């Protein structure tokens, strides 16, 4: 079995299993904990609406709080959107998702992805620089923060090595023209590392953010407090 | 007097309650080994690991935004005062003992185990450096209610016997005598008799039945007795059937602030049982921020079922009386600004009540910059004002508050929390500031239009 076959076959299967089962397990660890009933008389009963509003409202810093974290937030938007474009709008990646799920959609032009990649890389480098130089972030940081940074950056870097490679998406009649198999295997393996790490580290904030924001939204709305 | 009181006698003649020699002392309770302290703390952490807490403890991305919202960090620039860092032992306990990958965390020591030395170090972060004002909770992009986590982490500190002494002592005294400041039923009765004589007001005590049970803060009884007179004037003017009860008048809850759930419950049950005994339909909490959080939002949960009466903060009560046309008032001549008590406004959801009172008074209200829900804390909430070793730290944080008050451009400032007033009085004396923090209740009482010509 070649390295590419390995990356496309058993390692991918294992990575996806760990990703889905691990994330489910991590969420289960939260949901299985007891929830005591709240007997206080609520000021508002629209707690579901409040939870959803909290998910939305925490997307941006607010002026009443001196727009705390504005630079970090703009930067986070830069690399989150950049990564989203790379994953979901780049033709080869859509092809990859289609092979896995059968779902596909129109890709954006390659140059858009290249710009998104630039945003993602600059944003991630800036985030790391801040983490290393800001007293607060440095104190809070641990292995998870730095390892997560590496596993996020790796697929981008290994993917960039493939940019000059020919790529022809598969059609029912034509087999895809694949790039250098070693480079592609390394790229796939780096993605698989990210998928495997996802449930264990801070990448899981991608799902946990909805839980914690929602819970706070529910509790604050119950009290009639601002979100 | 208990053993710790004898070692550190409470000084009631000081401008604020304190112990006489606070600088050099041991802030530990009980004769416990380090292992026992850690064991007790871990059990308390485990008890508080409910589903919402778990979501919070799992979600932090270490962005550090919360630091910029904290007056203790902003005025010290010391990263240790980053709010989420204050609950690091709680996070360690969760990750190692109950988290989704606890076995991995323990096996590879990904999070260190909580130690007694660490808890001792964190005592300053969890008590001296956090008022649980909740500004951090508002800016967290992950929506983590950090202030709530600090409140829960204090449970573990109490169980470990690692509470700052003054706070432990006032909490213990509150549980033992019914009041943290010695405002016992006998003292209350004497105060009432004195105030009734001095101000020719009627202050009903221990009526067997009343529609409204008013409660007090011992800070008010001992430090701001005019609040009782103001209360009596307002209640008479509004025509309420009300009473105070000697079996349930003290609304401050130092059990909650110190982290002792049992004491918190005992103190809350006194109020609840007193209201039930006099068949009150409404219990009104005094000008005290944490009293509101303790009874309005936590009281029923400690009682184990919904309370058979309504609970309002005095600012909400005044707003309702204004709304119902029960209060005929005159317009204050001076422009005013309002200091929002964190536990009433941001944490309690009653931000609008005081504004409704100002509107009813037709007062010239000038909001502070970033006022209302985003308001900066006075620095003394959460029991911090009781801790002398935190004085320097707290007063630095108070500088933000002074700036906010001045920038409002108002001639006078009022609040609806006697603990905040205590912080202001201390800050005023320390900085020789020419401002005085007044009371919303006093303001209304002073502007009652007894002749009946003003707007109702």
Helix content of chain B: 40-55%
How many structural units, i.e. domains of chain A?
1
- Provide the gyration radius of chain A in Å: 21 Å
Mean pLDDT of chain A: 92
- Under the CATH scheme, which class of the largest domain in chain B? Mainly Alpha
Q: What does the overall shape of chain A look like?
A: globular
Assembly state (oligomeric): heterodimer
Query: Helix- and strand-based class of chain B?
Result: alpha/beta
Rg of chain B, alpha carbons: 22 Å
The portion of residues assigned to helices of chain A is 55-70%
Q: Number of helical runs of chain A?
A: 10
Secondary-structure blueprint of this entry?
The complex is a heterodimer of chains A (227) and B (456).
Chain A: H1 3-8, H2 10-31, H3 47-57, H4 70-89, H5 91-101, H6 110-133, H7 135-140, H8 143-160, H9 181-197, H10 205-223
Helix pairs in contact in A: 2-9, 3-10, 4-6, 6-8, 8-9
Chain B: H1 3-7, E1 10-11, E2 18-19, H2 34-47, H3 51-59, H4 65-69, H5 71-74, H6 88-98, H7 102-107, H8 116-128, H9 135-139, H10 146-159, H11 165-177, H12 185-199, E3 212-214, H13 218-223, H14 226-238, E4 242-243, H15 254-258, H16 261-277, E5 282-285, H17 289-297, H18 299-303, E6 310-313, H19 314-323, E7 336-339, H20 351-361, H21 391-408, E8 412-415, H22 418-431, E9 437-439, H23 440-446
Parallel strand pairs in B: 3-4, 3-5, 5-6, 7-8, 8-9
Antiparallel strand pairs in B: 1-2
């Amino acid at each position: 079995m070649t390295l590419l076959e390995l990356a496309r076959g058993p390692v991918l299967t294992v990575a996806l299993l760990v990703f889905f089962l691990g994330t489910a397990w991590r969420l289960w660890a939260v949901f299985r904990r007891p929830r005591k009933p709240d007997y206080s008389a609520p000021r508002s009963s629209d707690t579901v609406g409040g939870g959803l509003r909290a998910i939305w409202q925490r997307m941006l810093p607010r002026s009443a709080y001196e727009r705390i974290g504005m630079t970090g937030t703009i930067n986070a938007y830069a690399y989150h959107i950049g990564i989203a474009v790379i994953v979901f709008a780049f033709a080869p990646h859509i092809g990859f998702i289609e092979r896995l799920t059968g779902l596909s959609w129109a890709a954006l032009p390659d140059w858009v992805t290249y710009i998104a990649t630039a945003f993602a890389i600059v944003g991630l480098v800036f985030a790391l620089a801040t983490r290393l130089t800001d007293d607060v972030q440095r104190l809070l940081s641990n292995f998870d923060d730095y390892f997560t940074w590496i596993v996020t950056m790796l697929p981008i870097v290994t993917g960039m090595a493939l940019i000059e490679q020919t790529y022809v998406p598969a059609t029912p009649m034509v087999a895809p023209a694949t790039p250098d198999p070693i480079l592609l295997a390394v790229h796939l393996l780096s993605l698989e590392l990210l998928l495997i790490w996802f449930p264990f580290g801070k990448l899981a904030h991608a799902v946990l953010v909805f839980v914690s924001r929602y819970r706070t939204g529910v509790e604050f709305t119950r009290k009639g407090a601002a979100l | 007097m208990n053993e710790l009181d004898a070692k550190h006698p409470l000084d009631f003649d000081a401008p604020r309650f304190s112990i006489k020699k606070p600088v050099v002392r041991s802030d530990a309770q009980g004769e416990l080994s380090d292992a026992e302290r850690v064991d007790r703390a871990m059990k308390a952490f485990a008890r508080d690991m409910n589903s919402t807490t778990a979501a919070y403890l799992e979600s932090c991305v270490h962005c550090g935004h919360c630091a910029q919202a904290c007056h203790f960090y902003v005025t010290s620039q010391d990263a240790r005062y980053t709010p989420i860092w204050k609950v690091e032992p709680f996070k360690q306990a969760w990750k190692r003992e109950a988290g989704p990958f606890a076995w991995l965390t323990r096996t590879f020591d990904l999070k260190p185990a909580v130690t007694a030395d660490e808890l001792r170090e964190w005592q300053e972060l969890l008590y001296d450096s956090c008022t649980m004002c909740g500004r951090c909770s508002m800016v967290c992009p992950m929506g983590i209610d950090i202030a709530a986590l600090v409140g829960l982490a204090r449970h573990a500190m109490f169980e470990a016997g690692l509470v700052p002494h003054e706070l432990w002592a006032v909490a213990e005294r509150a549980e033992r005598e019914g009041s943290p400041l010695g405002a016992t039923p006998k003292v209350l009765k004497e105060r009432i008799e004195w105030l009734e004589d001095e101000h020719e007001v009627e202050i009903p005590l221990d009526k067997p039945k009343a529609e409204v049970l008013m409660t007090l803060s011992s800070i008010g009884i001992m430090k701001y007795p005019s609040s009782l007179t103001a209360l009596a004037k307002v209640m008479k003017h509004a025509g309420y059937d009300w009473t105070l009860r000697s079996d349930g008048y003290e609304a401050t809850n130092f059990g909650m602030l110190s982290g002792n759930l049992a004491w918190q419950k005992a103190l809350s049950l006194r109020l609840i049982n007193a209201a039930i005994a006099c068949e009150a339909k409404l219990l009104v909490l005094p000008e005290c921020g944490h009293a509101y959080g303790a009874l309005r939002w936590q009281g029923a949960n400690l009682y184990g079922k919904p309370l058979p009466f309504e609970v309002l903060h005095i600012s909400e009560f005044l707003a309702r009386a204004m709304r119902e046309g029960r209060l005929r008032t005159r317009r204050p001549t001076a422009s005013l600004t309002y200091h929002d008590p964190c536990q009433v406004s941001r944490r309690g959801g009653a931000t609008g009540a005081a504004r409704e009172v100002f509107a009813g008074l037709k007062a010239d209200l000038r909001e502070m910059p970033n006022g209302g829900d985003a308001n900066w804390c006075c620095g003394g909430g959460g029991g911090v004002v009781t801790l002398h070793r935190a004085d320097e730290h707290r007063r630095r944080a108070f500088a933000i508050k002074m700036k906010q008050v001045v920038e409002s451009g108002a001639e006078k400032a009022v609040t609806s929390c006697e603990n905040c007033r205590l912080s202001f009085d201390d800050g005023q004396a320390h900085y020789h500031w020419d401002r005085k923090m007044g009371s919303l209740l006093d303001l209304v009482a002073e502007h009652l239009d007894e002749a009946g010509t003003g707007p109702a």
